Amino acid sequence: MVAVSLSGRSKLWVLIKRIYNPSVISSSYSNTQYHSRLIGGLIQKRNLNFQANSTMGICTSSEKFVQECRCRHAATEKLGVLLVNIGGPENLNDVQPFLCNLFADPDVIRLPKLFKFLQRPLAKLISILLAPKTKRWYAAIGGGSPLRRITDEQADALRTALEAKNLHANVYVGMRCWYPFMEEAIQQIKWDRITKLVLLPLFPQFSISTTGSSIRVLQRIFMDDAYLLRLPVSIIRFWYRRQGYIRSIADSIVTQLSKFEKPEEVLIFFSAHGVPVSYDENDGDPYKDQIEECIYLIMREHRVGPVQWLKPYTNEVLVELGRKGVKSLLAVPIRELGRVPALGCTSSFITDLADAVVEALPSAKSLSILRETAKESDCR
To answer: Is 27 a domain residue?
Structure first.
């Protein structure tokens, strides 16, 4: 194992991409900030509150849970696991309709109730305007998104990992904005007469616009179907804290750092999709806090403590130069650039997802039971 050693010159950056705009916001955070946020309890408090307001439970990691679940899984049960992702256009002709589906999601673009009828027309207009530029981006990576292929491969790998734990399951793939849609996958789950289901959104952190949107689709479909309404379901809302996931990311970073001439001088740059500020400020979306906590946990995995980084930070220097009236700037390119690949079907990652599925099974409850429980609570 190669240890991560960051010098005082190294900085930790988080790149946030606006969901509606291809422009980029970049900001820097020190490990001291992450540490103080965790100590202050802000992240944990918000996450716990969000779980308390949720309609379905989430299990905590426990080896005992895994053993109990294996014993309880009777041969007559038919377990299903639904992997959920956003989806992506598989060719350039798919780009515009994919974008239309994306922006038609009321959890992606939120309109006042008075203007809800404009959701689809607005989505179509935005997709038409963005399609030419977006097509160029997809053309640059081969003409389409590899997400469906990768997700199918993850589904196969997860099925194999569960079988290694003596747990046989049908693993389904459902996309929010492109084929195969969640609705199709849920219909197949019904046809297969699944008796217990685990919903596993492939988003490590929870956001209203990703996992939240997926849960609402599932609830809407289930509420209109007597069979599905009785189906016990367990939802894994987020899994960025899982040790297997954190370790897999950290190990991948170490592997890439070892390829540099001077690993100790490398600036580590984290990138994540962003969400509208209103989600965080008005709706209590825990995504931003969970992203920051996740980065802290990854860096801590290799004993990178909560230290203050040497200044000045790049973003602060650029702001100061602007204040001084600098109109032109020449940036000296870096000599080495590396990228940590997505985990994909990394063995340790898939095994951890399989553990998460096993641990989630005991909390599975039908929506009908949860609905009756909610009614009883309201009457008290």
So the answer is: no
Nearest in space to 240 (alpha carbons), one of 231, 225, 250, 252: 250
Q: Specify whether 172 is located in the same domain as 249.
A: no
pLDDT at residue number 335: 75
Confidence tier at 69 by pLDDT (50, 70, 90): low
- The answer as to whether 277 is a domain residue is yes
- Do 361 and 278 lie in a common domain? no
Whether the upstream peptide bond of residue 263 has omega within 30° of 0, thus cis, is no
Q: String of b and e for 28-49 (b: at least 16 CB within 10 Å)?
A: bbbbeebeebbeeeebeebbee
Is the preceding peptide bond at 312 cis, omega within 30 degrees of 0? yes
What distance separates the 2 farthest-apart alpha carbons in the chain?
A: 74
Q: Which domain range does residue 317 map to?
A: 242-333
CA distance 34 to 40: 10
Instruction: Give yes or no for a contact between 101 and 177, defined as CB atoms under 8 angstroms apart.
Output: yes
3-state DSSP call for residue 81? strand
What's phi and psi for 172, nearest 5 deg?
Answer: -110, 155
In 214-348, where do the E strands start and end? 233-235, 268-273
Considering the domain architecture, whether residues 253 and 302 belong to the same structural domain is answered as yes
Greater pLDDT, 248 or 35: 248
DSSP 353-376: HHHHHHHHGGG-B-HHHHHHHHHH
| Per-residue pLDDT tens over the stretch 157-168 | 999 999 999 999
Amino acid at 174: G
The secondary structure of residue 181, as a DSSP letter, is B
Of 107, 86, 58, 366, nearest in space to 239 by CA? 58
State which amino acid sits at residue 33.
Q
Within a domain: 175: yes
Residue 261: predicted pLDDT: 87
Q: CA angle at residue 15 from 176 to 11, to 5 degrees?
A: 145
**Residue range 209-244, pLDDT digits in tens:** 999 999 999 999 999 899 999 999 999 999 999 999
Using CA of residue 69, residue 75, residue 78, residue 83, what is the dihedral sign? Answer: positive
My answer on whether 185 and 111 are in the same domain is yes
Distances in whole angstroms, Cα of residue 107 to Cα of each of 94, 207, 318: 22, 10, 35
Distances (CA, A) of 294 to 14, 28, 270: 11, 15, 11
